[in-house]
Write a structure and sequence with these properties.
Radius of gyration: 20 Å
CATH architecture of the largest domain: 2-Layer Sandwich
Order of helices and strands: EHEEEHEHHHEEHEHHHHEEHEE
CATH topology of the largest domain: Ribosomal Protein S5, domain 2
CATH class of the largest domain: Alpha Beta
Strand content: 25-35%
Distance between the termini: 10 Å
Largest sheet: 8 strands, mixed
Number of strands: 12
Structural class: alpha+beta
Number of domains: 2
Shape: globular
């Protein structure tokens, strides 16, 4: 028997940072995001012995060990180890795990969390665990943020699990995912006008997130107001999407970016600022980094007639525009026979 899983990556429009503790417990977070047609992929093949093997196409690493062994974190596939430590159980039956993502860690598209969601989906099916979507997302969050200790927020795991356009509310003791019924013509126009661009560098988000959280705990006025403004923009942007006011949506992307930069001086840098200025000078209405900051992907809203000019300006600076479409489905699992 072979199990498969895929979980979509996401782009965050507004509210990023308000999902990072301790902010949700103290003031409540709001995030607007959508999943795209880039995925984290997983495959599980049952073995006839008690060995577990892990193969990561992205890291070029393989591990093998016996069922029931607790894996130590040593910098080699620790994300997968943390997931299997909690989810593999003591079943005497072994299996092979293969994992791959369409974007690397540090891309700003939530790829690490999507990979954990895909792995959770595989183990859920393998062990027949009765998990709801909310429980799946929360479990993936717990493994990544608490068991492994990777700093970050909650939005990525819920986006990858639920899929589509979502307005997500975060509080001290619960998360509410509100799916948005965006008209198809609005979705089409968004795909027509949005430009996703890889800056050329990935980044480690932990030091950025630690700095952002420290500034909030220390009540730095700029950081506190930046987070509150992020929530306001998330609401405004949600309303603009639902009503098809896309030029306003583009301008709000710029407002979200300006508020985001107030959270930490590490979010932007000279290269990101240069790319942003070039995009606006070529006709973009607004844009922002899609993740914590420091590198990864940037998202720009342009009138379609000017989109090619924005792309040319970004390419001239060594960045790489890429095509994408929105993905309406969240994490999916299925089974195939070994013969097929």
């Amino acid at each position: 028997m072979i199990l498969r899983a895929k979980a979509p990556l996401r782009i965050s429009f507004a509210g990023g940072g308000t999902d990072v503790p301790p902010y949700p417990a103290q003031e409540g977070g709001l995030v607007l995001n959508a999943t795209i047609n880039k995925f984290a992929w997983g495959s599980l093949q049952v073995r006839d012995d008690d060995r577990i093997t892990i193969d990561s196409a992205d890291m070029g690493m393989s591990l093998s060990y016996r069922v029931g062994v607790e894996l130590a974190f040593d910098g080699k596939l620790d994300l997968v180890k943390a997931g299997l430590n909690r989810l593999a159980g003591e079943n005497a039956q072994g299996f092979n795990i293969f994992l791959h993502s369409d974007a690397p860690p540090g891309s700003g598209l939530g790829s690490s969390s999507a990979l954990m969601v895909a792995l959770t989906g595989l183990m859920k099916d393998f062990r027949n665990l009765p998990l709801t979507d909310y429980e799946t997302a929360r479990l993936a969050y717990t493994i990544e943020r608490e068991d492994l200790g990777i700093p970050g927020g909650l939005q990525d795991q819920y986006a990858a699990t639920f899929g589509g356009f979502n307005f997500i509310e975060f509080s001290a003791d619960r998360v509410i995912v509100n799916p948005l019924r965006i008209r198809q013509e609005t979705v089409n126009e968004l795909e027509h006008n949005l430009l996703l661009c890889f800056t050329g560098t990935t980044r480690r988000a932990d030091h950025i997130i630690d700095d952002q959280s420290a500034r909030y705990r220390e009540h730095v006025p700029l950081a506190v107001e930046g987070l509150r403004r992020q929530k306001e923009i998330a609401v405004e942007m949600k309303n603009a999407l639902l009503q098809g006011r896309l030029d306003e949506f583009g301008r709000l992307l710029d407002a979200a970016w300006q508020a985001k930069k107030d959270l930490s001086s590490r979010i932007s840098n000279e290269r990101i600022d240069k790319l942003y200025r070039a995009a606006l000078a070529s006709g973009a209405h607004g844009g922002k980094i899609t993740g914590a900051g420091g590198g990864g992907y940037m998202l720009f809203y342009c009138q379609f007639e000017k989109k090619h000019k924005v792309a040319e300006a970004l390419r001239a600076l060594g960045a790489a525009p890429t095509d994408f479409a929105f993905e309406p489905h969240g994490m999916q699992t299925w089974r195939v026979s070994e013969e097929s």
